[in-house]
Amino acid sequence: MNKKTNIAEIARLAGVSTATVSYVINDVGKVSEKTKIRIREIMAELDYIPSINARSLSNGQTKLIGVTLPLIAPSDTTGTLLETNPFFSEYLGEIHKVISSYGYDILLSGIQVKGKYKNWIKSRGLDGIILLGSYPPDIYEEVKTLNIPTVLTDVYESYANDFHSVNTDDAEGAYLATKHLINLGHKKIGFVGGSIKESPIHNNRYLGYGKAMLEANLKINNDCIFETLTTFEGGLSLASRLMREKTELTALFVDADIVALGMMKACQDAGRKIPDELSIVGFDDIQAASFTSPGLTTIRQFISKKGEIAANLIMKDILANTRTTESKVVKSRLIVRGSTKPLNE
């Protein structure tokens, strides 16, 4: 393409005004079909690609959706989250699939410093934002002042009512996982999760586990509740500790697949057979859950479906220029693979 090619040059060759060329570029219905075809032919001949920045100045849209991931540990970055937990890539992949069909793109970020999120959104002119996970309340207050389409995913606090929200029925999923182990005859069942006090997600999954245990008249002792980082390494470390302590547990409900896979790896490396010596159920059903040997019994929370719903909700508001609020709950399902078996079979 000739570096000097611009709207003025196209207008001259087409014998129209620069405004007419701009209307065609921005798909404004003020130009005859014959003129549109002529202008587009000239643009193709000159290999002219309209500047996204110029179009955003013209129509007030950048066609960018901000997606924010939770940075929990000090060392977390959006890159490390994508590298260490396939959950995030599955979720983001479906969001991008939906919004790209409308000609939109994703701008990915994490929140590390309070007070800067609003500035990040404004400086990039984002048309909407999707937040995954829980953040400090002042973040949501900042977002409200911007009055742009917003979708929250996996947020259970009351302020989620001010936005679109997409959640999994975490308590029900955890209940199904624990009930599966109970039905297999296990009585000494442990719970493994992130911070129960600080994370509503982990708390809800703990409550589902507790409900199933109490219904079966099984005791829940402090020595069968374990917290660790929601990473593969967190699972490795915890499993190594449990083997040193020689726990009497025969089964574990682990509330994240990536942790469960780390625990399975540590156990197998130490010569402990899964599920002969320990049955394990995870939660998420990331793709890797079916790649292991044995495969991981888990709760499928339809990660891609959550991303699809979030993307469709935000695009609906953007295209209609509305600000609505809908709450969507995605039901989970027990997927039985080889990591669980009846006790003493």
Explained architecture:
The protein has helices spanning 7-14, 18-25, 33-45, 52-59, 78-84, 86-100, 117-123, 137-146, 170-183, 200-215, 232-245, 257-269, 303-320, and strands at 64-69, 105-110, 128-132, 150-153, 164-168, 189-193, 225-227, 251-254, 279-281, 298-300, 327-330, 333-335. The chain has 345 residues and is α/β, with parallel strands linked by helices. The radius of gyration is 25 Å and the shape is elongated.
Number of helices: 13
Beta content:
5-15%
The number of strands is 12
The percent range for helix content is: 40-55%
**SSE order, as H and E?**
HHHHEHHEHEHEEHEHEHEHEEHEE
| Distance between the ends | 72 Å
Global mean pLDDT: 88
Main sheet: strands, sense, barrel: 6 strands, parallel
Radius of gyration: 25 Å
Give me the secondary-structure category.
alpha/beta
The spatial strand order of the largest sheet comes to 2-1-3-4-5-11
Low-confidence stretches: none
Highlighted features:
345 residues; alpha/beta; four-stranded parallel beta sheet; six-stranded parallel beta sheet; 12 strands; elongated; 15% strand; 44% helix
Summarize it.
This protein has 13 helices and twelve strands. It is α/β, with parallel strands linked by helices.
Secondary structure elements and their pairing?
Elements (H helix, E strand, L loop, with lengths): L6 H8 L3 H8 L7 H13 L6 H8 L4 E6 L8 H7 L1 H15 L4 E6 L6 H7 L4 E5 L4 H10 L3 E4 L10 E5 L1 H14 L5 E5 L6 H16 L9 E3 L4 H14 L5 E4 L2 H13 L9 E3 L16 E3 L2 H18 L6 E4 L2 E3 L10
Parallel strand pairs: 1-2, 1-3, 3-4, 4-5, 5-11, 6-7, 6-8, 8-9
Antiparallel strand pairs: 10-12
Helix pairs in contact: 1-2, 1-3, 5-6, 6-13, 9-10, 11-12
